[in-house]
Amino acid sequence: MKITGFETLHGDAVRCFSFLKVTTDVGITGWSEFTGINERNRRMGLDSLIHDMMRSLMGRDPREIERISGDLLNDIKLSQSGLNHQAIGAVQNAIIDITAKDLGVPVYKLFGGPVRTRIPLYWSHFGMLRMGVNAQRYELDPINTLDDFANHVEDARSAGYGAIKTKIHYFDENGGNYFFPTYGWHSGGPELNLEPKIFNAIVAQMAALRDVAGDDIDVILDINNNFKSDGMVRVARAIEPYNPRWLEIDLFDAETMRDIRDRSPVSIGGCEMICTARTYKPFFVERAIDVPLVDVAWNGLLESIRIANVADVFDLNISPHNFTAHLCTMMHGHYAAVIPNFQIMEFDVDEAPWLHEFFTEPLPIENGELVLSDKPGWGMDVVEEAVRAHPPRVSLE
Description:
The chain is of the alpha/beta class. The longest helix is centred in the first third of the chain and has 22 residues.
């Protein structure tokens, strides 16, 4: 078998969802989903890297997954991680799909068979898409007040989800708002101080969610890296009475993360933005993390399994970082199926109503769980015509 061609496709939904298609001389096509980043420059850069890597693989046997991955890693030795590694992840995941299809088995059968085929999910970005203009655009019930936000927990309960994850939200005369100064979307950067208005809003939203959730639904707060470490510790201490499953933060320094964890009365999750087991290692050695988040699209499935193996040595359970579309959900589902040290998987329930048109199969979710089948490969392919019918709002041209 030889690689004969490739193509990348980009389709608009809540984010721009991107896909790599790899074709072979025996008629087998492999797919991967490789990004959920909207910004044109980042998407253009990653797309360009994937094309460059794929051109070097023309005529290669895609089933030589480890060899191809090693050759691509050698090519980026001087600039590892970041978009370079995310590009390798996209290529690796597509040729894993080809290999499984060639054998007529689901991907999880390539890696020792499944530990589980029903994957517990938590409802991520809880309520965020229902605030402001997005609610109308995506045909969702609007959330305008803190009471609306808290009562939305009942929707998660009725759908069978045992956990929700919220970002930072506050409510005023304009309705519901989210808060991301670290990305330059709101005021507060670059100093990233935790001001009283936002501090009080965080406490209020966690109190309101816990009041409705009761004791049978876990609540997770994700503050990314919107504050400096002292602000993160203040948040951790303030939300302790509301028993969060974990407080999620994104930092790149293991010692700083360890200091926060030492001062925090609640569990700390994070590391979703880093790639490779080597990069995760100091966070494990420093005991800087309670819940490591791992992104299969960015790391590739092979490297993601290595990260889980290292985490297992430190008695840590993985939560897959999955914030993109349905193919990516399936990719993360196969990952969750094969690692023994799995905790719970992220999933965005709210999405554009047309997203399902991008895929050949419906997303098999029952009672808050992803249900994996024995269909070959990832279990679904991409419908190219549907993706092309929804071009990105910001073009690569």
